[in-house]
Design brief:
Radius of gyration: 23 Å
Number of helices: 16
Strand order of the largest sheet: 2-3-1-12-11-13-14-15-16-17
CATH class of the largest domain: Alpha Beta
Distance between the termini: 59 Å
CATH architecture of the largest domain: 3-Layer(aba) Sandwich
Helix content: 25-40%
Number of strands: 29
Shape: globular
Structural class: alpha/beta
């Protein structure tokens, strides 16, 4: 069955219960709004600290938007793009698109105008739904989008080149559209994160979405009494597929629009959140704020919080050990996945396996995994090869890119591009991205191993290791180090710290600078390679 069936069932059984709450810290002290069938656009989009919605209204608004689209001629297989910040409107728009049989095409909110145009063209999107944060970017390309037939605006006031989606959809029926959707129908196009180049369009069927929902609920055991705190962007498979566990269990979730240690802890306390998915930088910020005295745990009631899990990038074991010092009762899980595997869950650690911190885990519910080297399966512990996964959540293809599809899908297996190894118990450890491996003097150097080591230094907030050209060795490892606020360190001090590493793994250059990460927490190494491809370093020393 399609994922929309869960929403419809929740609306029928638990219609009056709050399912989504939006908290906007910058509007603290402003009004609180609960949506109704008759809410006006001004009420729904106006300045508010807290907005909330029941299961009935969620489904009703999704139906209204679906019926509007159908009335405008949107048909099965059409593509409708979403360019919005996290908000209460996001998921009803997404589910409204799915209910028509069309494909939802979420776009990264950090895209430039040119990138937005590129993705709209590549995905063959015919309608763009966008929010107020993107008016200038959309205006810059509005006359150069030949495939876009309608521009729908979610907010107040509506720019003159778009149409008010509130006014258009509010007069439409809130009844379920009479559209049959099968698991084999196409559901969505997601874009790769772009950490290894320009984004590719990833095509998924409804089967993928359904499996993501079931997988998430199985892994984290969401029940009716749970409450999920969602902070990462909904355009990405990670946040949305974790929220799918709340959809399956008919449990509430909170969208926090403004991320800081104080507001994460306050929202957990005020909203009685039980499950929180953090990105590595956010977890680090919370720990740093506790240790600096910026926040005091005694100011919050966190007794409800049962699970903290992290995904989207390698997780330093030192971070988890620090976390358990302050939150000893928390269950912990690591989730591994790609947009090509419909987000997190194809490999996961499991809350029962915290003794294996550092591993990404074992194949997730309904998934298979293998490690491949030179075309053959790896069985021995410690041998590095490429991780491949297979399961119901694997993408259909890279849309309009047969070459890239053929390279990534081999006999039903998705070649992830991530290098991994088994330990003696069969747990999978991520070593690094295939494209990030540094070959120095004939030795393979895996940056993640060096990054994990450096993060054990109390002065280091974040670190990225990249390869830089070298005449004799081909490449050398350069460590870009971001220090914690108030900390000072010299190149010589960091070099001395790295002497604990095997000689060939020690960074040959130390650079003090900010480490950029994308909205899903992944280090933007292409930006660093571009910045440091020539000798324009902030501070460096060859070692």
């Amino acid at each position: 069955m399609p994922i929309t069936a869960f929403l419809e069932d929740n609306a029928a059984r638990f219609g009056d219960e709050i399912c989504l709450t939006e908290i906007t810290p910058e509007n603290e002290g402003a009004k609180c709004v609960r949506w109704s069938e008759f809410s006006t656009g001004e009420e729904m989009s106006g300045r508010a600290y807290r907005r909330e919605m029941t299961w009935h209204i969620f489904d009703y608004k999704a139906n209204q938007f679906a019926n509007f689209l159908l009335g405008e001629g949107v048909a099965r297989g059409d593509k409708v793009a979403i360019l919005m910040m996290n908000s209460l409107e996001w998921l009803p728009v997404y589910f409204g698109i799915l209910k028509t049989g069309a494909l939802a095409v979420p776009l990264n909110y950090r895209y430039t105008a040119d990138e937005i145009k590129y993705c709209l063209d590549l995905s063959d999107s015919s309608i763009l739904v966008f929010g107020p944060e993107f008016i200038d970017r959309v205006a810059a390309i509005k006359d150069d989008l030949p495939k876009i037939k309608r521009m729908l605006f979610v907010g107040e006031p509506t720019p003159d080149f778009a149409e008010d989606v509130y006014a258009l959809a509010s007069v439409c029926s809130g009844e379920k559209p009479d559209i049959a959707i099968s698991d084999d129908d196409f559901a969505a196009i997601y874009f790769s994160s772009g950490t290894t180049g320009f984004p590719k369009a990833i095509l998924h069927k409804h089967t993928s979405l359904m499996h993501a929902a079931i997988c998430e609920q199985k892994h984290h055991n969401q029940q009716r009494g749970d409450c999920f705190l969602c902070m990462p962007p909904l355009y990405h498979t990670g946040a949305k597929m974790h929220w799918f566990g709340s959809l399956v269990s008919a449990s509430p979730a909170v969208l926090l629009r403004g991320i800081s240690p104080k507001w994460i802890l306050r929202t957990v306390s005020d909203e009685r959140c039980t499950i929180v998915w953090l990105l590595v930088p956010w977890a680090q910020d919370i720990l740093d704020a506790i240790e600096s005295g910026e926040v005091k745990l005694s100011d919050y009631d966190l007794s409800c919080w049962r699970l903290m899990h992290i995904g989207a990038q390698p997780v330093p074991p030192s971070l988890v050990k620090r976390w358990k010092q302050y939150f000893p009762t928390h269950d912990y899980d690591t989730n591994y996945g790609l947009s090509e595997s419909i987000g997190p869950g194809c490999v996961h650690l499991g809350v029962e396996n915290i003794h294996k911190v550092g591993a990404i885990g074992v194949p997730g519910f309904g998934w298979e995994a293998r490690i491949v080297k030179d075309g053959a399966d790896v069985h021995e512990a410690g041998v590095v090869g490429e991780l491949a996964v297979r399961g119901p959540g694997v993408m259909t293809c890279y849309y309009r890119d047969e070459k890239a599809t053929a390279e990534s899908l081999v006999d039903g297996w998705l070649m992830t591009g991530d290098m991994a190894k088994y330990d003696e118990d069969g747990f999978i450890f991520l070593v690094d991205r295939k494209k990030d491996v540094i070959i120095s003097g004939g030795e393979n150097i895996y940056p993640v191993q060096i990054e994990d080591f450096l993060r054990t230094n109390d002065k280091i907030k974040d670190v990225a290791v990249i390869g830089r050209p070298h005449k004799r060795l081909g490449e050398i490892a350069a460590a870009i180090i971001e220090l914690k606020p108030g900390s000072e360190a010299s190149v010589e001090e960091m070099a001395a710290f790295c002497e604990a590493l095997p000689r060939y793994k020690r960074p040959r250059e130390i650079i003090f600078d900010h480490v950029p990460r994308n909205p899903t927490g992944k280090i933007e190494k292409p930006r660093l390679r571009e910045k440091y491809g020539v000798s324009n370093l902030v501070e460096q020393q060859s070692m």
